[in-house]
Design a protein that fits this description.
188 residues; globular; 3-stranded antiparallel sheet; alpha+beta; single chain; 7-stranded antiparallel sheet; 5 helices
Length: 188
């Protein structure tokens, strides 16, 4: 297969979609769409997300030291897109579109009722990088929808959970499972 070079960019890179939740000073919830997110430690479990530019979510995560990471499903696409394209400085985004939320079970964070998988995280490190930051949070609790029955490693049915996948400029969904870890060793 022939290849050609591209200038360094953030172009193609499929990413999960999460809504990072924080509370404003007045107690109103604030959520921002973040797709630059992944795990960075297993023991203790930690995840990191990156954000750039001036954003209320960044300020609130740094000020409050806690955040929720709410998995976005394809049914939540409108909500995620609205939150990703509307400033929390200017609007009460949750009130604007009637979003139902609760508080975390362990941390004082907003949790989207519609999200089937939510991480409650305590901020442990902030790494500044040009016009952005990387936020590392220790997972203190995970809230999972009752409909998700088997949560053991490799058993979560991602097709029925239906996560929203982002690749710059477009949203996607998953359509099938094509194999499991160990496939190459089991089929020699």
């Amino acid at each position: 297969m022939q290849k050609h070079s591209l200038a360094p960019q953030r172009g193609f890179f499929p990413q999960p979609s999460y809504l990072i939740g924080t509370f404003k000073d007045d107690g109103a919830p604030n959520f921002a769409l973040i797709t630059w997110i992944t795990f960075c430690s297993a023991n203790p479990p930690m995840l990191m997300f990156a954000s750039r530019g001036r954003k209320l979510t960044r300020e609130l995560v740094e000020k409050n030291g806690v955040f929720s990471a709410n998995l976005v499903t394809t049914k939540m696409m409108y909500l995620a897109d609205y939150f990703g394209n509307t400033s929390g400085y200017e609007r009460n985004k949750c009130e604007d579109i009637g979003v139902n939320y609760t508080k975390g079970n362990v941390l004082r964070i907003p949790v989207l009722e519609e999200s089937p998988w939510v991480y409650e995280c305590k901020l442990v490190e902030t790494i500044r990088n040009n016009d952005g930051c990387i936020y590392i949070g220790e997972v203190k609790n995970i809230l999972v929808d009752e409909a998700v029955e088997d949560i053991s490693y490799g058993k979560i049915d991602m097709i029925s959970m239906d996560p929203l996948i982002y690749a710059p400029g477009q949203y996607y969904n998953l359509s099938s499972s094509v194999g499991s870890v160990g496939y190459s060793k089991n089929n020699q």
